[in-house]
Write a structure and sequence with these properties.
heterodimer, A: about 300 residues, globular, B: about 280 residues, ABC transporter involved in vitamin B12 uptake, BtuC
Chain lengths: ~300, ~280
């Protein structure tokens, strides 16, 4: 346990120190990794702990981003209004969608979450007068906070995102190690057994679904400030699927793994699309390779090797 | 009146196209509990290969044969060498088939470019016929005819033949079917190949009126998924009825409420799901 604390502390120190050595471009890449890391971890709560493979997780990320974008552009660029509103809407939509999705399991759950996500995508795409349709909402301003540094600068914004990331991973770690989180794992392993033990399985899953939506919404909030732009692609199946890939690539049920998975995918996309046009093709191959050769993820591979070396 | 009749016929013909895709998706799921997200890719592969053959030879029939043959082989390879490793594991199946969806999408974009294209109709279906005030292209009627023929053929195959009995046995209880001497592995490959064949045929049939373009793979997949969600996975009847329902909803939705086009398909789906989570005809 103390070893884990030491590693976490070292990671935080490195993340705090990195702006000193990174170029502004590299820093913005790192910021993006942290935001997608929050998103991937939020899905891990569902997939890795509750065993619910959502293929529509971008819905909560996207709806939060649209909420913040619309409020900041049309109502007021007020952090204390826009930011909580984004979280509230993301939580509300996941509470609504959860009612439908949790009636299903297995492949049905995948399909239904996919279809529900596409409902929002369809609205964002079709309702041009509100959402700008395919063109999205450009030039969303960054928030003004009562801080001595302006968040329009790369470094202060990075620290703002890092603070959110640390808070998110801390809260999620608390959640998964709490009795509630242990019950989720129990449900993942055997729903029937948990029912017999007297757990209200549906309620546990429903709360997990809403919590996952809230953390996805946090990532969406941050991303719209980061990019200054929202478009239907935030709600897209491609994005939902890539969240699944990040979780599996890093290692489902490990929390840190999915954040690493997110960083790897963001880095690969950046490197590969700089050299060739066929990033989507490569991404497709990554899906296939990860499924075939690394089902337990990078964290799983490392663990395996470590255990083997200890005999 | 003309509006309603024309839109209804358009909706039914689109519904028949969706049936071709949903039938395969549904049978594959029924027998193997396998969700194939690359099913829509067979549609665009069929369409693009058909287009290439039509341009080279001018023959629609040859195009149909070549396209469905290639797509069937692709299906066999995917099932035998990849999907077979993950029986009843929905997440690896979803990731794997989504990977294939991306690979096929980008390869098609690379090979055939990003411009939307339509397949030329066979010459005998270039005309339109008139019923009173309603003018209707014969090609759409041909599509409806194909849908009915495939539907009846599948129904006969499933209910009236030994092969169908084996498939039904496999759907109900694969373990028992294996015990009675059915080669479930071979049967699975055959059903998967047949599903791919139908989807490839869909690309040829849909090519002249829906067209082929980047993104069509996913749009068609999504519609076919809604069809099987509404109709119930594993049910042929569900795929047929669901196809009609979704085809009509989509057509009238686009005609009457263009801003909410997708919504008119997804909202009824959500209602049906809330009432019957396994769809209209799915096993409870």
């Amino acid at each position: 346990m103390s070893k884990r604390i030491a590693i976490s502390a070292a990671a935080v120190v490195i993340l705090v120190a990195l702006p000193l050595v990174l170029s502004s471009y590299q820093l913005s890449l790192l910021t993006k990794m942290l935001i997608f890391g929050i998103f991937a971890m939020s899905l891990d709560l569902l997939l890795g702990y509750a065993g619910l493979p959502s293929l529509g997780h971008a819905a909560y990320f996207g709806i939060a981003a649209y909420t913040v974008g619309l409020l900041a552009l049309r109502v007021a660029n007020n952090f204390w209004l826009d930011f909580p509103a984004g979280l509230l809407i993301a939580g509300g939509v996941s509470a609504l969608f959860g009612l439908f999705a949790l009636r299903a399991r297995g492949s049905y759950f995948l399909m239904i979450t996919l279809a529900l996500g596409q409902v929002l995508w369809g609205i964002a795409f079709g309702w041009r007068s509100l959402t700008g349709g395919d063109d999205g909402l450009p030039s969303v301003p960054r928030p003004r906070l009562p801080l001595p540094w302006s968040l329009t600068e790369g470094v202060p914004f990075y620290y703002f995102v890092l603070a959110c990331f640390v808070a998110a991973i801390g809260l999620l770690a608390l959640i998964v190690s709490s009795p509630f989180g242990r019950a989720l794992v129990g449900i993942r392993e055997s729903e029937r057994r948990m029912e017999v033990l007297g757990y209200d399985v549906w309620r546990y899953k429903y709360v997990a679904f809403i919590l996952a939506g809230l953390f996805a919404g946090l990532a969406g909030n941050l991303f719209v400030y980061f990019n200054g732009f929202v478009s239907p692609s935030y709600l897209n199946i491609l994005f939902s699927a890539s969240a699944l890939l990040m979780v599996i690539l890093g290692g489902a049920g490990t929390l840190v793994g999915p954040a690493i998975g997110a960083a790897v995918i963001v880095a690969l996309e950046n490197v590969i699309s700089a050299y060739m046009e066929r990033w989507v093709l490569v991404l497709g191959v990554i899906y296939v390779l990860v499924t075939l050769f690394a089902p337990a993820g990078l964290v799983g591979l490392v663990r395996q090797r470590w255990e083997r070396s200890r005999g | 009146m003309t509006f309603w009749v024309t839109q209804a016929l358009n909706g039914i013909s689109f519904g028949m196209l969706l049936f071709l895709l949903a039938a395969g998706l549904s049978l594959i799921y029924g027998l193997m509990r396998m969700l194939n997200l690359a099913h829509g890719s067979y549609y665009i592969l069929g369409g693009y290969i058909g287009l290439a053959v039509v341009h080279a030879t001018g023959s629609f029939v040859l195009a149909a044969v070549a396209a469905t043959a290639v797509v069937t082989v692709v299906g066999v390879v995917m099932e035998r060498f990849f999907l077979r490793r993950f029986p009843e594991q929905e997440l690896p199946q979803a990731l794997l088939t989504f990977g294939f969806l991306l690979i096929f999408a980008d390869l098609s974009l690379w090979l055939w470019g990003g411009t939307p294209q339509t397949l030329p109709k066979p010459e005998i279906f270039e005309r339109s016929i008139r019923f009173g005030a309603v003018v209707f292209p014969t090609y759409r009627l041909f599509v409806i005819g194909i849908g009915l023929v495939v539907g009846l053929g599948l129904w006969w195959l499933q209910e009236g033949t030994r092969l169908g009995a084996m498939i039904r046995a496999g759907v109900d209880d694969a373990e028992m079917a294996r015990g009675t001497g059915v080669n479930v592995g071979l049967l699975s490959t055959a059903v998967f190949a047949f599903g791919a064949f139908l989807a490839g045929l869909g690309g040829i049939i849909g090519g002249p009126f829906v067209g082929v373009y980047p993104g069509a793979d996913f749009e068609i997949l999504e519609m076919a998924l809604v069809v099987v969600i509404i109709g119930g996975l594993g049910s042929l009847k569900g795929a047929f009825v669901g196809g009609l329902v979704v085809g009509l909803l989509d057509n009238f939705g686009k005609a009457l409420f263009p801003e909410l086009a997708l919504f008119t398909v997804f909202a009824p789906m959500a209602v049906i799901l809330a009432l019957r989570p396994t769809g209209l005809f799915g096993a409870r």
